[in-house]
Amino acid sequence: MLFHKMTKDAESVIAVCFIFISALYFIGGQNPLLKKSLTGIYGPAFYPNIFASLLLVLSILILVKRYKKCSAVDLQEQNMCKTPKKLIFIFCLTICCPILMSYGGFILMGLVSIFIFCKILSLSTKEAILLSVGLTCGVYMLFDALLKVQLPNGILF
Amino acid sequence: MMSGLLEGFSNFFSFNLVILAMISVLGGYIVGFLPGLSATMAVAILVPLSFSLSAEQGLLILAAVFISAVQGGSVSAILWNTPGTPASAALCFDGYPMTKIGQAGRAIGLSQISSFIGLMVSWLFLITLSPVIAKVALKFGAPEYFSIAIFGISVVAILCSDSLIKGCLSAILGVLTATIGMDPIDGIPRFTMDTVLLMGGISYVPVLIGLFAMSEIFRNVAIMADESNTMAVISNSGKITNIIPTFADLKKYLPNMLRSSLIGTFIGALPGTGADIAAFVSYGEAKRWSKDPDSFGKGNIYGLTAPQAGANGVCGGAFIPMLTLGIPGDAVTAIILGALIIWGLQPGPNLFLESSKLVNTLFAGFFVASVMTLIVGLGLANFFVRIEKLPKKYLLPCIFLLCCVGSYSIQNSVFDVFIAIFFGITGYYLTNYGYNGCPFVLGMILGPIIEQNLRRSLIMSNGSPFIFASRPICVIFLGIAVLSFISAIFKQFKKNRKAVPVI
Fold first, then answer.
1. pTM for the full predicted model
2. B90, B97, B118, B363: least buried by Cβ within 10 Å?
């Protein structure tokens, strides 16, 4: 029951993630190349291991604190914050952007992503088109034409 | 010193630099003025853009945006009780009550003047103290740099988060992120998962853009999506008058401004602190020194000028450890430090020897940008009132596109855009649960400094850690670091005991 409560407690979940990260560092540090140094006594894994250990200890400390709190208080409302739907759409859009960037280049990515972004924020279609075209052209002119900063060229365009 | 400064001014007064400074000041002021857009975010977005400029020009625009954004946050705090930046939150206490009694112009004018005084005091310390500290720092070896970096990271972990453990965890995660890539001593790839993409490590800029700009976009979208959040808009868009302060006001409040400026400069010079802490400490001190502390929160002008002078005092103060020791004073200087490294410059005492022209131009640029910010603040207050009406739904897509382009343009790599998005989403959730992005960034920047100098020191001493005990500077800085940890643990323990148990 207590374990079930803790799986719904965001702070406990974050602490478990940190423990997992520290474990990844410990496993990565087991590489024989990282154990011995070419120049000194301590190898390349020495320093990350210190901090991975600290991460492990502090994460366990957070878990213990949460465990005590969960067992002492009947947490009716768990503190896992709700992500609004709009934000989930924005997350999906941002994750798609680099993919769109690699295939379609900056212009296509700019036009499509800004249009969708505006629609998610409930802007009218006219406003969304105006903003996506205006912003994409503006940023392209500023970076590519004026500042000579290279913008992504896609595989397709 | 004077000849160097004059050289800096003569370098600065070129057409390009003056125009760039003006645009940066105006842009920074607008960013600071708009609630939800912070100085850190503006600087993070501008870093990639600045790489197409020379180091001098780039550094100047970053510094100008930093200065003006901190100052710009005050206007919305005074007019609408909505702080533009976290540092200007303390201005709401007495600034907004002044607006309610019809003294908005006086409040804005005095806050701009106190900002300017804060900037000038910190600038004086910057130009006089930095070369001296840099000279001393030239004698430092690996053990000393290790101790100073540990001191920096210890202060960050304690001051930047409500919870000591969470602050430490953020900093540790930053340090661990920085270990990905080539080992700095032996040149062996670490934690790269055998991918070429991670061989060069994770660049600072996409992480900074993710943590400070993208997560901010997500936060704003979440606020907009939350229908229950009815952000009350106080209609106060009438013309503001009496902005230029009177001589009597200046004479009366000058000592308070100077005291707060000194507090801000000192706090700024401490690694890991920021303008928000300085503003609140200055406010607290002004209240403590006041003959009428009960009037604070009801439109007391001392309560208005103190946090503003303190917050802007941080700007110059934060540059002191960054330029002289290579240790950032706050989140913004951490970003600027990352930019300096990408420009191929090594912040620290050698910067004063190898790039004295750059340092002098920065000193001159800082001064001129401060004057420009004052002129903008006093002259364009009524114009900014109109800009405030621009809805955020138009701004967010613009910032989003700049974030994508910014993270891509560092190394022309789509992978960096993924990094920015990853840290943006992670930053959004971690901030919601009390994990601050500032210790993470400082951990990421100070981590490699700590590692290199720790391992060099241990090579020097054949693996003996007692090398740190044999050097007085190390003992002092490590001692302060340990003491600050102990005091933070003690404070947390006291706070927990005071808290009423919820059973």
1. 0.75
2. B97
